[in-house]
Design brief:
This protein has about 180 residues and is an alpha+beta fold. About 20% of the residues lie in helices and about 30% in strands. The protein has a single domain (about 15-175), classed as Peptide deformylase (Peptide Deformylase), CATH 3.90.45.10. The protein has helices at about 30-45, 135-150, 165-175; strands at about 50, 60-65, 80-90, 95-100, 105-115, 115-120, 130-135, 165. A hairpin with a 2-residue loop joins strand 4 (about 95-100) and strand 5. The chain starts with about 25 loop residues before the first helix and ends with a helix.
Length: about 180
């Protein structure tokens, strides 16, 4: 059984670094990291997690949207590993919504993101994929891609007025 990995938090220098491009999709360490990230995101009630959040500097993240304690209205999707992801195009329309982060516990922030994006990535076998993502799943992709570029959601919050604690968020927004 794969064990969950410890999640590093804001202040750790790897969260502010650009992650390294993945070259070898057959590397056993990469495959083990994917398995560990899948377990970690589920146990942490996350909807996504990027490799830098567990101290691994590689361009890999997991999208695993599903209803849970932190995101009760999240759509259900098959957990997916995305390697060397990028945005190919995006809608003009951007939407404000609340985000949290496993590496920034206890805070939520309102962040403006593109509503629709076309993305490209390699799956865990190295197969190239192109997909169009919308709404909450597009938000997850953009949030996790930021982690690969050394950014956290706090960097995208327009004002400190757009921040609240997790407890206030649960009472006021999820109410």
């Amino acid at each position: 059984m794969t064990e969950p990995l410890p999640i590093i938090e804001l202040g750790h220098p790897i969260l502010r670094q650009s992650a390294v491009w993945v070259e070898d999709f057959g590397d056993q360490q990469l495959q083990n990291l994917i398995d560990a990230l899948l377990v970690t995101v589920q146990q942490a009630n996350g909807v996504g997690i990027a490799a830098p959040q567990v101290g691994a500097s590689c361009r890999l993240f997991i999208m695993a949207s599903r209803p849970n304690l932190r995101y009760p209205n999240a759509p259900l999707m098959e957990p997916t590993a995305l390697i060397n992801p990028k945005v190919l195009s995006h809608s003009e329309q951007r939407v404000d919504d609340w985000e949290g982060c496993l590496s920034v516990p206890g805070l939520r922030g309102s962040v403006r993101r593109y509503q629709t994006i076309e993305v490209e990535y390699a799956d865990r076998t190295g197969q190239q994929r192109v997909q169009t993502l919308t709404d909450f799943v597009a938000r997850i992709f953009q949030h996790e891609l930021d982690h690969l570029d050394g950014k956290v959601f706090l960097d995208r919050v327009e004002s400190t007025q757009a921040l609240m604690t997790e407890r206030e968020f649960q009472q006021r927004i999820m109410g």
